[in-house]
Amino acid sequence: MNEYDFLVVGGGIAGLSAAYTAAKAGIKTLVLDEGDFALRTSQLCVVRKQLLEQIFADALKNLPVGRTVVERKLVFAQGENIFEIRRKHSKMQTAENALITLKRADFVDWLRKQAIDAGVEIQTNVKAIEPILEAANFVGVHTHSSQEYRALLTVIATDANSPVLEALGLPTAIEREKSAVLASEIFTLAQDDINHRFNLSSKQGSAQIFVGAAGELVLGYLHTLSDSIALTAIALPLGDGRQMTEDDALEALAKLKSCEPVSTFIDEAKSEGTVVEIKDCFPDRDLKRVYGQGVILAGNAANIKSVLQIEDCETELLSGKFASETAIECAKARRADKKFSGFYYQKLKESFLLKDAKAYDSLLTYLLGNPQIFTVYPAAIVDFSAYSMQRDESPLKKRNKKARENLFYDIGGFYNIIKDFWALRSRF
After folding, report:
1. Residue 398: enclosing H or E segment and its boundaries?
2. Are 343 and 287 in contact (CB under 8 A)?
3. Ramachandran region of residue 364, left (φ > 0), alpha (ψ -120 to 50) or beta?
4. Partner of 31 for a Cys bridge, out of 8, 116, 299, 409, CB 3.0 to 4.6 A?
């Protein structure tokens, strides 16, 4: 019989992070990897260097080559015109909370190697289809090949529509009228070309957010990776009652690619393909659903991360780390009832993960109810910057006054600017 101390269902970031830490502590660990999970999720991974050092201190020297973010931009786009707010500082590269950008597939491959080196057994192309329950205790899973795997504690670290979650009675379907659709694409480009186009030094990175444009383009993200550029566009349901589709996200991505300066950045770059994901805008974040008798949920299965946390893979890493720490406690006591699996609940509750997700939810609620943030503001700000920079026979002071008057008129008055600014600020 296939029996283990710790069974991990899912070979993504959360599952491999959990397996690695548990195996390093001497826990007999098995990962069941369906095989294509990493290919169905975002192609980008952004994580704090400090967190990687906490979890993988001994293995960081072999981490895939990435870039450390030293530049952040907020770009308002209206047609071919843009207005950007930029922050760049080389000290961001050595700060404790420095961000590293990586290709998700490369990071998952690296995690898999670290897990194997730590003693984790990984079985690939294995799909768990239903739980094994004994007296309401979760004791293992059945697979598509009729195999049975049992463990003291199981972590489900698959995507949110796993058949195991469905068999447990947990919600797996996404309400389409409350969903957003994401489209991401990676473009391969030589490192020297990236450095030149973004005015970066070796291993320095740029993270940019694009707001506004015609059609469904609401939010766009750009990140530089070691030898590539990652783009992500989100189609959000802006209250008109229409469900977002894959076509909406692909159209948004196409608009992002055609927007200056993105079109210049990716010129002559080779596409590695596009991934489209449907995300629940407001998932159920009741933490009591993420643990039970002999089972806990981590990563995407736990449904903690907000749809706006595009660049964040820390939720997956940390929930995996908390899952492994729970497995260690259960192994010591040789018990995995709710008292011990609840250790995971406490870890999540005390961390910043849920607080961050709720802050993003609050922001998303405001954005969805105030579409002028994506339409009126970009147009008004771009027009303001263009008008204030024009040269004519009128005095500079007079031109600037006229530009401000136009800005206030476009947005609907100074009061609206203060109201929206304060509403956005209060959510962070």
Report:
1. helix 396-411
2. no
3. alpha
4. 8
From the number of C-beta atoms within 10 Å of its C-beta (0-12, 13-18, 19+), residue 137 rates as middle
Q: Are 417 and 408 a contacting pair, CB within 8 Å? A: yes
Q: 277 and 182 in contact (C-beta within 8 Å)?
A: yes
Question: Which CA distances in Å does 377 have to 48, 121, 258, 340, 412?
Answer: 31, 53, 20, 50, 10
* The CATH homologous superfamily of the domain defined by 2-65+102-174+283-352: FAD/NAD(P)-binding domain (3.50.50.60)
Determine the 3-state secondary structure of 145 from DSSP: coil
- CATH T-level fold of 176-280: Alpha-Beta Plaits (3.30.70)
pTM of the full structure: 0.84
303's tokens: 């449904």
**Under 8 Å between Cβ of 112 and 124:** no
Q: Which residue has the tokens 């949920």?
A: 297
Q: Which of 203, 304, 222, 206 is nearest to 260 (CA)?
A: 222
Specify which residues 75 forms β-bridges with: 84, 210
